[in-house]
Amino acid sequence: MAGSKSPRRAALVVHVEPKNRDGRALRDGPARLEEAVGLTAAIHLDIVWSGIAPLARPVPATLLGSGKVDEIAALAKEHEPEIVMVNAVLSPVQQRNLEKAWGTKVLDRTALILEIFGERAQTREGRLQVELAHLNYQRSRLVRSWTHLERQRGGFGFLGGPGESQIESDRRLISERIVKIKKELEQVKRTRGLGRQARKKVPYPVIALVGYTNAGKSTLFNRLTDSEVLAKDLLFATLDPTMRGLKLPGGTRVILSDTVGFIADLPTELVAAFRATLEEVLEADVIAHVRDAAHEETEAQKADVLAILAELGVPEDRPILEVLNKIDLLDAGPRRGLEAQNGRGGAFAVSALSGTGIPAVLAGFETAVTRGNITLALTLDGSDGEALAFAYRHAQVVDRREKAGKLQLTLRITPQDRARFEQRFPKKTKLLEGVAGEY
After folding, report:
1. Which of the ends of the chain has fewer CB neighbours closer than 10 A, N or C?
2. Is 284 exposed, middle or buried (0-12, 13-18, 19+ CB in 10 A)?
3. How many CA atoms lie within 13 A of 265 on its CB side?
4. CB 249 within 8 A of CB 363
5. Are residues 247 and 208 in the same domain?
6. CATH number for the domain including 415?
């Protein structure tokens, strides 16, 4: 950079907007550009220019047409950026050619998201998962022009800087590291499996919060559990899953899980690497899909999240509730419309920030996790600790009273467990009247 200019980490952001056959954009271009700018700012770059590049037909060598390549080359010469971020997936050849044409480093969407994940991951597991995704991505790009890529700080080295470069220059070492990480993550998977088995012994249903990045999952999680999970207006603020116990209004105890945010075109490397973590979603009894109701692309974001859930293999019959968050940012009319429909079709309008609508969400959670459960009355001798432990282990105890040396318990159990109780406690259980799952 010229000596007359103060040093800064400048970046240009180019959103590539594919067109369909009739010439219309497939997604909202300005909204996707805004998202790309947010992603780029998340790695502490100063965006000095941003714009949209319409794409009717991709060019094999550069993705973009020659006119757009020349236009951005002129902008790069004017602004002298450290990075040009191209909001699309580039092949190694395309990336190399664009770097040559623009005289600076180029990041595509996959590399940028990997860089953000590298900075955000806090736990050893999270860092292993991100490094695995990064190495799989980088392995396909071990070409001579990439020898300048070196590791530094947090993140995974797309931004240069002095340091160790052997991961980027030696395919054999990368492959060995991938094998090692996979073994370590298999151990993580086994440990998580043991944790899930332990939780099943204490029959607390699991509710997993999922949603597009920055939809407000962590803010909702904190509101519901009185926790202090990092919750900022920041893309991918949460990478490492957090679980907390939660008591619902009717007495049902559940485990609430906060998970990594999803995003459109989530790199397949990350979906694969985070599968161990996302298995918590697969094992959840109920999925709560948190949406940013005030976002102009809320419907498109919903489709992206559902597509990723399907890719993960979430069963189609798994209960999914919609939590329409950030209604405090809506105009009065649309907000009243959402609130008027509250609870219908499994959708709840809330503001996690202010607390509006939270009681309805909690009631919805309770209905979802107790759906079909059976309510039993069980009478035990007060000294029968083994039987009492069995009841707590295999059912939800919603009421406990002592009378004349006897324990009178009210339990909620699944239909599958009813036979187990009647066999274990012959003539001591009584099916209570009323709607299944209510008491």
Report:
1. N
2. buried
3. 16
4. yes
5. yes
6. 3.30.70.240
DSSP secondary structure of 242-283: EEEEEE-TTS-EEEEEE-PPB-TT--HHHHHHTHHHHHHHHH
DSSP, collapsed to helix, strand or coil, labels residue 45 as coil
Q: Which two tokens stand for residue 112?
A: 């940028």
CA distance 124 to 277: 12
Per-residue pLDDT of the chain (439 residues; tens, 9 = 90+): 344 444 458 999 999 998 765 555 556 788 889 999 999 998 889 999 999 999 989 999 999 999 999 999 999 999 999 999 999 999 999 999 999 999 999 999 999 988 888 887 777 777 888 888 888 888 877 653 333 334 434 455 555 544 444 444 567 888 888 999 999 988 877 877 776 666 565 557 889 999 998 899 989 999 998 866 554 555 555 555 678 888 888 777 888 988 777 888 777 777 776 665 677 788 888 999 999 999 988 999 999 999 888 888 888 878 899 999 999 999 999 999 898 877 788 899 999 999 999 999 999 998 888 776 778 888 888 888 888 888 887 777 878 888 888 888 888 777 767 777 878 888 787 877 443 333 3
For residue 361, give every residue at least 6 positions away whose Cβ sits within 8 Å of its Cβ, in sequence order, or none.
224, 288, 321, 323, 348, 350
Contact present, 115 and 43 (Cβ < 8 Å): yes
Number of residues in the chain: 439
For the chain, count helices (H), then strands (E): 15, 14
pTM as predicted = 0.71
CA dist 124 and 273 (Å) reads: 13
Three-class DSSP category at 363:
helix
Residues 57 and 158 in one domain: no
Sheet with 242-247, edge to edge strand ranges: 242-247, 253-258, 206-211, 286-292, 320-325, 347-349
Instruction: Give every strand in the sheet of 83-87, ordered side by side.
Output: 46-55, 10-18, 83-87, 105-108
> How far apart (Å, rounded) are the C-alpha atoms in residues 407 and 125?
45
Residues 228 and 366 in one domain: yes
One domain for residues 283 and 331: yes
Q: Look-up: residue for tokens 């099943």? A: 200
Q: Which two tokens stand for residue 271?
A: 């979906």
Is 198 inside a domain boundary? no
State whether 221 and 366 are in the same domain: yes
Count of structural domains within the chain: 4
Encoding tokens for residue 224?
């519901």
